[in-house]
Amino acid sequence: MARMPYVAAIDQGTTSSRCIVFDESGGIVGTARREHRQRYPRPGWVEHDAAEIWANVQAVVDEATAGYDVAALGITNQRETTVVWDRATGAPVHNAIVWQDTRTEPILRTLADREDDIKRITGLPLATYFAGPKLRWLLDNVDGLRDRAGRGEVLFGTVDSWLIWKLTGRHVTDVTNASRTLLMDLRTLDWNPDLLDALGIPAAMLPEIRPSAEVYGTVRGGRMDGVPVAGALGDQQAALFGQACFQPGEGKCTYGTGSFLLVNTGATPVVSSHGLLTTVGYQVGAQPPAYALEGSIAVTGALVQWLRDNLGLIAGADEIEALAASVADNGGCYIVPAFSGLFAPHWRGDARGVIAGLTGYITKAHLARAALEASAWQTREVVEAMDADTDVALRRLRVDGGMTVNNLLMQCLSDVLDLPVVRPRVTETTCLGAAYAAGLAVGFWPDLDALRAHWRPDAQWEPTIDKARREREWTQWRKAVARTLDWV
What we know:
Elements: E1 6-12, E2 16-22, E3 28-35, E4 47-48, H1 50-65, E5 70-77, E6 82-86, E7 96-97, H2 105-109, H3 115-122, H4 131-141, H5 145-150, E8 154-158, H6 159-168, E9 172-174, H7 175-178, E10 184-185, E11 190-191, H8 193-199, E12 208-210, E13 213-218, E14 228-234, H9 235-242, E15 251-255, E16 259-266, E17 277-282, E18 290-297, H10 301-309, H11 320-325, E19 334-336, E20 354-356, H12 364-389, E21 397-400, H13 407-417, E22 421-424, H14 429-441, H15 448-454, E23 457-461, H16 467-484
Parallel strand pairs: 1-5, 5-14, 9-12, 15-21, 21-22
Antiparallel strand pairs: 1-2, 2-3, 4-7, 6-8, 10-11, 13-14, 15-16, 16-18, 17-18, 19-20, 22-23
């Protein structure tokens, strides 16, 4: 029988579900996308209907794969979003609690005296992002759920687990998603009994933790019946994998509404003392895992949206590049977009945004340039934290995400970081990473070297400004950041 020439990947994201079909060279041949509803029952609460997500995933998979013989299916997903469902019926017992949701703050306060211990075990700070405290909230607040969990009648998972269970009937998660729960020991790659006790979570409802590239089961029913589900990675780790960052010191930054920079740190976890998260980057089959340091930036693309929607400085996001390029520099003006506090490496919820250095000379073009430069300066803060945490220096930065179409931003990044910045030919790196993992697991691609050979640059930027200017502006940026603190 002739070999099937395609691999598909589901990208279940915060606002939509997509399916993309890739050929043997990593090129895109089919795609489909559907949005789902965002639910905000109270201030700070964000929920999704997991059943709606599942229906959308079925629809996009059928649409994207029509006409293609698919050898394997991979999954990448919004991380930390928490689903609990009935083992017998498959129905969710409550809306999924989304990673952005902040309702678990009171639960985290009860763990404050154990924060150092928890960070040592999990690599994570006590923050409302992570899935374990969201599960605890559901156990505490959904009638009868704790008793049902104790009897093994309900199952927990992040979105990857939910989809694998619906597709195959197996209750598993991968190491990258498990590492975002506050429940997994980074070194043993298993659930930590002490943390389960601390959060009051029955082990019986947790999925089995498996590698990122492995056949978890085969699809039951529908057009994809019998196709192996063979790869799963949280979205940012999937982008790292899709960017072929397989060596220590290789890293990528995804530029979207916010931005996420991950750097491969190799076979041992590096616990950050500079405000970064330690996470599993990926694990291929029985091989040892690769770990990563992650720096998350809350507001990058969202700042451009704010200039458009709230200030009316531009009519469309695509206008900002030309406006910012119409001036040679920022005129001494800096924008720090701490709209809901500062994320990595500061973790300051009390910070609020500032525009600093205003004079009568400043025009909307200077503001546009300062907005783009804010993404670059925030990236440098994360890169400096990474350099301080590890002796594995970043050699160049691979970029992806919607903002990377902005060539001026890419040049600003290179100038500010004093590093080459490289954009790949295939920018759908999240889906590509999940497809790569699934393809590896079924032998569609032989090894990491074959995937590395597919990676092709689309464009590269080199630093153009001198060191004196770079350091002078860096000093000004840090002064502007200091003005944001202690506001709330």
